[in-house]
Amino acid sequence: TSMEYCFGGCTNLVSVENIPSGVVNMKGSFEGCTGLTGAPSIPSGVTTMQSCFNGCTSLTTAPAVPESVTTLGFCFAKCTELTNAPIVPAAVNTMFNCFNGCSKLPSVTLKCNYVPGSFNLAFDNCPALGANSITVPKGKLSAYTAAASVMGTTEDKFKEAAD
Fold first, then answer.
1. Measured CA angle at 163 (ends 50, 135), to 5 deg
2. Are residues 54 and 80 in contact, defined by beta-carbon separation less than 8 angstroms?
3. Which residues does 163 contact at the CB level (< 8 Å), separation at least 6?
């Protein structure tokens, strides 16, 4: 059920396929895999992806994050080539430093509610995020804009989802 740090630091790893369906903990699974260019499909049932792809500097497209995931802290931190983020599911309640250092990331869609203290620096060092580039759930815009500085960004980056 755990792949915690299983490939961590494998700098020559370029891809992985077929993660077992019973896995729930992927904490640090690919942390520091600087050669990883293709992310594997994440099985439904995974709940923890903390630091999963932290420092994967060759990763350009993130995998879909299953609806079961609650923890994304540091998940894509320092993924300097990431240009395609996953939709962050509604169940996520922890995403501190999630996209910190994703310097080429142009947009993010969040389905989750803002949780004070659990989203710190989520968008720090993300200069490609422009005005209205972070979509948040309908009715939650004020919570996100009020906490923009804590998340390492500015109020103008957020917009409310249409539905």
1. 40
2. no
3. 138
- The whole-model pTM stands at 0.97
CA distance linking residue 118 with residue 31, whole number of Å: 20
Residues 47 and 147: their CA atoms lie apart, in Å, by 25
d(CA 42, CA 155): 32
Name the one residue in this structure whose structure tokens are 């804009």: 145
Question: Is there a contact between 50 and 74 (Cβ–Cβ < 8 Å)?
Answer: yes
**Mind listing the pLDDT tens digit for each residue in 25-56?**
999 999 999 999 989 999 999 999 999 999 99
d(CA 150, CA 156): 14
CA distance 138 to 9: 39
